[in-house]
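Box 4.2: Ligand-aware structure prediction
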Amino acid sequence: MTVRMIPSTCKECSVRCGSLIYVENEKVLRITGNPEHPGSQGAFCVKGMNAPVTARDHPDRPVYPMRRIGNRGEGRWERISWDETLEEIADRLGKVKRKYGPLSIAGAVSNHFVSRGVAMTQLLRSIGSPNYMINQDLCQGCRYTAAMLTGVGAQPGNELPKARCVLVIGKSPSDSSVVQWMHIKEAKKAGAKIIVVDPRRTPISRMADEWLQIRPGTDVALALSMINVMLSENLQDDEFVRDWCTGTERLRERAAQYPPSVASEITGVPAETITTAARTFATTKPGCLILGHGIDAQANGVKTTIGFHALLALTGNLDREGTNRLAKQQSGFRDYFSVINDPAFRLPAEIKQKIIGGEAYPLWSGPDSWSKSSHNPSLIRAVITGRPYPVKGLYVSGVNIVCTYPDIQNTITALKTLDLLVVATDHITPTAELADFVLPKTTLLEEEDVSADQSAPCLGVVQRALPPKGEARSDIEIAAGLTDALRRQGLLDFDLFPWKSHRGFIDFQLEDTGISFDELCVKGYRPIAMAYEEYRKKGFKTPSKKIDLCPERLEKIGHDPLPEYTPPAYSQPPAGFDLVLLTGIRSMAYHHSRFRNHAWARKIQDAPELRINPKTAERHNIGRDDWVWVSTPGTPGRALLKAWVTDEVPEDVVATGMGWWYPEIKGADHGALTFNIDVAIPYGPPWDPISGSAEARNTACRIIRAERGEIPRLTGAATFRSSS
Ligand SMILES: Nc1nc2c(c(=O)[nH]1)N[C@H]1C(S)=C(S)[C@@H](COP(=O)(O)OP(=O)(O)OC[C@H]3O[C@@H](n4cnc5c(=O)[nH]c(N)nc54)[C@H](O)[C@@H]3O)O[C@H]1N2
Ligand SMILES: Nc1nc2c(c(=O)[nH]1)N[C@H]1C(S)=C(S)[C@@H](COP(=O)(O)OP(=O)(O)OC[C@H]3O[C@@H](n4cnc5c(=O)[nH]c(N)nc54)[C@H](O)[C@@H]3O)O[C@H]1N2
Ligand code: SF4
Ligand SMILES: [Mo]
């Protein structure tokens, strides 16, 4: 048999590397990076090499629709046909809709940048509901909301190697992005100055020219102080600021309150280091700014981001060679986000306004907000309490919310309260365990997809390498089938899901581009024509068409529009909560909660880690590989993590990853209620006053060594190797 080489795109994580899939006789021989891909240029990782094959072939993978026959969470299912599944789900949704109204049907999906995002919004909107949850409030929500307000929605992409200075805030690309990590190393090699702001000594902090070991949650004071230095020393790009920025004078007044001596007290970074960092970034051009997860999902995340956007604007490091680049679009291409935002695919104003969270967070949930999704913690509360109105049906697609939303016990309570829970997935997660129906999802090797990827920028293609297993379907196909069933039963208030197949959706995306899917498949990507300084033609995406450093939209709804420091909640902890807990440190082996059922990943990391400074460990009588209970003030839950004694964290900080569960542990939660840090993190306030994001990342905590004798009972069936 001949070996076929299929150029595709890896989507096992959000980095989206170009891939080459080698197939012989319906078997994948290997998957590698594609050196010709303009974004990833051959970069690839262990997940991309292994996960597509092991996810497809996993023996426990659901490949037929399943209906629950036991109690919720009992793990007893029966196989049924797609026709019966879709009719029955439509019928049960109909019962919910007739009794409680269309708003009582909601969804949960990962984000707006994948096909399942469109599948979800358009299915729900057709029913007449604006309510769905996305991950972004825990992810990039504060950064996206700030970008909408300032107009600075700009990423470095592959301009990075051309930068002379790279400022990295709260990002550890060696863990989270092989492509960015490769580009930063290239920039460093070419002589660029690297400045890193992170409470942890990460690999990129080690290679930095300046590492600012900041106190968690205080970055906005640093940003304001850097602005202060730039403006008081007249280091700004005068022409760019004059022509393209508004609000500079008001920002100058605010920043004047943050001289380096004041910011140093707040952030713990020496005043002279702040001054040097500001001068270096302002004078070493071109420069790029990377804003990571470390400043998001915080109660002051939007304001913090606005502060850093000002650094880009004041230095004019925007849409020029070697700087952050504004998003580029293929002419005529309909990406997922643009469909979700297209007035032709949206609900009437009077329904949009009823979304849960719309009143409190108009810039997150309201009709003109960035996300147009519900406020997650408020929606979960509505499920449990029926307020502001009942939510009784939930369709979950492409998220494992039991393992990834804070306050696991509360999420489980909510899911158990529902009249109907449907989960589309490619493996039985703790979320799927609670479902009434599990719908079998195709895996990456079995799918087709086109999206606009910004690192190059290019259109990236996913090609089908193998036929779907069993009766697995793509998210668009599942949602199309469900919409049809609802239509037949007269349950659609609107008809906003016109696509009949996934290929039909792709054709719709490409219709006005003059490019066919087959043409795109030849290389697996197509560069998007690119020009610098496009703002000169179109301006920035704000009401003034300029970068709004003092966003008008914030002021209009009664917020102080300027960045301002507010102390993080952990700074006034209840007695005994003497440490700060950082969560969400990425692991190269995992994508959030995924791959815990894959042997290759478990070989790389087999237990949730608690990174702890040697002196803190000694104070708490904790030794290497001891298990430690971690708890925070906001929830009764506590998580059991394994000590990793390391001086990468300061004495008052401990850090961990996220997403843990053990498929082999019996019980619907599969150990998530014991080992997953989100059991100990609250989803309640304080919430960012603009985006509603909860403080999932930096929390006060206390730690207690678990009794060694109780470990075998607690770890149960989980198979741990001892760490080396
Ligand atoms: N391997 C792998 N890669 C992934 C993922 C994965 O699960 N696995 N997930 C993907 C997703 S969805 C996301 S959102 C990204 C997330 O990841 P990125 O945005 O790429 O950020 P991280 O690399 O997680 O780095 C966050 C850094 O912020 C630091 N930090 C914590 N608190 C603060 C603070 O208050 N201030 C500052 N300045 N720094 C702080 C942490 O120590 C950490 O080093 O990763 C993506 N890439
Ligand atoms: N404490 C704390 N909590 C966090 C974070 C943190 O840093 N700290 N990080 C947050 C962040 S940034 C994020 S993005 C979230 C991630 O949260 P999730 O999105 O819930 O994370 P995953 O584990 O990737 O879950 C994806 C699920 O969808 C399934 N799936 C994968 N592809 C598809 C598909 O194409 N279709 C369908 N239907 N299903 C699919 C997978 O099998 C998996 O079960 O977690 C958040 N939670
Ligand atoms: S970083 Fe790894 S998992 Fe993510 S897209 Fe690239 S190869 Fe795939
Ligand atoms: Mo994320």
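In the box above, the bound molecule is molybdenum atom. Residues 10, 12-13, 15-17, 44-45, 47-48, 178 surround iron/sulfur cluster (ligand 3) (CB under 6 Å).
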